[in-house]
Amino acid sequence: MLTAAARPQWPAAVSPLVIDEVTGPRREARVLGVFPTCVYLGMGEHDAVLAVLARDALLQPIGLRLGVSSAEVSWGVTAGDVVDVGEGRVRLARADVVAARVQRPARVRPPHHAAPVPGRVAPNSRTGGRSLGPLDGGGGRGGGRLGPLDQVSESSGLECGPRPARLWPLDRARDLAAAALARRPVAPLLRGLIGAGAGLTPSGDDAVAGVLLALRSAGALDAVDAIDREVRALSHTTTSISAALLRAAGQGYAVPEVVALVDLLAEAPEPTDYHDPAVGPGSSTTAPYARPSWQSIGPTLERVLAIGHSSGRDLVAGLRGARDALAGRALAGRALADRALADHVSTHATIQEGVLHG
């Protein structure tokens, strides 16, 4: 056993989401999993997890990140081992990981003018909500133009047409987001998602995380809160690691690659007028979608799709499902406004006629 003076000290940056566990009183933590680039530690509560990350690991929001790569470290622990955490360090078998500074994780932020009104999206002068960008499908909008996810989906199992089994995260994510936006119960839908699938972060969990991030980006904060409350109640039905990451997603935190993708989608330009072949030559209408080119988000989307075995794809399914629900709500809102305007005009015309001919 190495003495305290002889033990290697690995400086690390700690996320504010786990700083209390690292700097608090010394206590035991159980090793949940060991991988070349990271070690997961259970901190007692089911959804309380600390990730010790090498420099080349995904920068998770629940992490304590070393300044050295996985090639330079030997964790010296296996799943089931017990280590000490607290007083500013994690004491592994062969080294101490020392919290030297704070590193704020990437976070999706709602529009600065968003208010927590049930199911509302942040106002946008053309769509009734945040601009909707290139993950969204083009069916019936703009003569069938494709967004980047449609192009990717031809080889990813998210294509249109017959409903392959792999489409279930997208379908359920869309239903979940629509229910939350309409203030309907979300618990029944979440019971079919949380813990569904294999791996450290099951597919259903990743899709729910995508929904939470997309709704937050759109400013639908009460919809986020409604889902987040039920996710916490169901956290015991999934893995500890996934439960911890879902709790972070409920607050808008995710790995930088995912946050960058959400931000790019939120920065889509305002919708523009385009020719609609269905209306006829010389006509124009307002596109409810703004679609940057594949080149504008393609590299970021590819990085997200490469996360894990299927986590990236399932996160993207959640993002698209939520954005489909938001688009449907925006279109329904515009149709309602159009009907109200038509009724107002009709009523006004009737009154005028009565005045003139009564």
Describe this structure in words.
The structure is a single chain. This protein is of the alpha+beta class and 358 residues long. The chain is built from 10 helices and 10 strands. Strands 1-5-4-3-2-6-7-8 form an 8-stranded mixed β-barrel. A two-stranded antiparallel sheet has the order 9-10. Strand 2 (27-35) and strand 3 (38-42) form a beta hairpin. It is globular. The termini are far apart. Mean pLDDT is 78; it is low at 115-146, 150-165, 269-290, 333-338 and 347-356.
User: Which class do the helix and strand fractions yield?
Assistant: alpha+beta
**Gross geometry:** globular
Q: Would you identify the regions where 5 or more consecutive residues have pLDDT less than 50? A: 115-146, 150-165, 269-290, 333-338, 347-356
Please trace the helix and strand order, writing H or E for each element: EHEEEEEEEHHHHHHHEEHH
Helix content: 25-40%
In terms of quaternary structure, the protein is: single chain
- In total, the number of strands is 10
Task: Give the averaged pLDDT, no decimals.
Answer: 78
How many individual helices? 10
Distance between the termini: 102 Å
Strand content: 5-15%
Radius of gyration: 24 Å
Strand order of the largest sheet: 1-5-4-3-2-6-7-8
State the major sheet: 8 strands, mixed, barrel
